Amino acid sequence: MNKTEQTGETLETFISNPQTPLERKIFSIGPWFHNLHLPDGTQTAPNHPLGDFPYFKWKKISEALPESLKGWRVLDIGCNAGFYSFELAKMGANVTGIDLDEHYLRQARWAARQYGLDGRVKFRKMQIYDLAHSTATYDMVIFMGVFYHLRYPLLALDIVAQKFKKLLLFQTLTMPGEEVMEPVEDLPIEKRDLMLSPGWPRMAFIENSLAGDNTNWWAPNHAAVDAMLRSSGLKTIRRPDHEVYLCTHSDIDEVISYEPDELSSAANSVRRMIIE
Ligand SMILES: C[S@@+](CC[C@H](N)C(=O)[O-])C[C@H]1O[C@@H](n2cnc3c(N)ncnc32)[C@H](O)[C@@H]1O
């Protein structure tokens, strides 16, 4: 669902001045959002405006993960050109990457062959809400850089919470503010000004565009990320990087007050609205 004409990623780049056959191939399937370091050292987006992205994030994130993921089944949601899928496969995991954009899936499938990882990583065109209609579960789910692009973010978070057994790696665009206030049991109607406290869970709605990207819909503060994760039955065990949350399931069963059927039905409705 788009606000107006979809502009898509604005942090993508083309490799400049391609010389070798490999560079020309990279150029022909650009622009790239992920700067992949291919086996011979060639990079797919060496001029990325964020720097060596997402390698500089991965350096911190990987330190928070188990050393080996041998035998783990991993789902990478919004996999883009597959940077995280490839890193996790190198650690021993069997990875499924999903994305709704064929442009990125083409890059990911091509890169998998360059790395010789095409036996361990598969990429599928899939909308996140459709995960509600599959019974497949994974040891670990990567849900990075997607939440805030979604029209129905909590529906997606609830679906994702049912898809992993051991770990969830979650990242969202946020708004400034690290304060967290003690959750209020029941907010009296005349005390609604409390919601203006800096530590109240808050999520800004972006009606038009942020950073030139009109698919950015939401920016929660840290308190809201914490609260939304809790209300989806999750708990944060580490924050390996800015805006990145490593989660497990929380021990409190009562927080989940909906049934999988409800999710599936909601996902069906969203699907019908978007597609039909
Ligand atoms: C900002 S990029 C993040 C890429 C990668 N996960 C990362 O963290 O670097 C968002 C990706 O999510 C994909 N995406 C956006 N909405 C999606 C949806 N509803 N279902 C599946 N993928 C989606 C986009 O096509 C894009 O590749």
Keywords:
7 helices, binds S-adenosylmethionine, 9 strands, about 280 residues, alpha/beta, 7-stranded mixed sheet
Beta strands, count? 9
- Structural class computed from helices and strand pairing: alpha/beta
For the biggest β-sheet, the strand order reads 3-2-1-4-5-9-8
Our Rg estimate from Cα atoms comes to: 19 Å
Oligomeric category: single chain
Q: What is the residue-averaged pLDDT?
A: 92
Q: Estimate the helix proportion, in percent.
A: 25-40%
Q: State the low-pLDDT regions, or none.
A: 1-9
Q: Tell me, what's the shape?
A: globular
Helical segment count: 7
The helix/strand series, from N terminus to C terminus, equals: HHEHEHEEHEEEHEEH
Ends apart, CA distance between termini? 12 Å
Beta-sheet strand percentage?
A: 15-25%
Bound molecules: S-adenosylmethionine
- Main beta sheet: strand number and arrangement? 7 strands, mixed
Describe the structure.
- 27% of the residues lie in helices and 18% in strands.
- The protein is built from 7 helices and 9 strands, in the order ααβαβαββαβββαββα.
- A 7-stranded mixed β-sheet has the order 3-2-1-4-5-9-8, with helices on both faces. Strands 6-7 form a two-stranded antiparallel ribbon.
- Strand 2, helix 4 and strand 3 form a beta-alpha-beta unit.
- The longest helix is centred in the C-terminal third of the chain and has 16 residues.
- The protein is globular.
- The N terminus is likely disordered.
- The site of S-adenosylmethionine has 15 residues, from strand 2.
- S-adenosylmethionine binds next to strand 2.
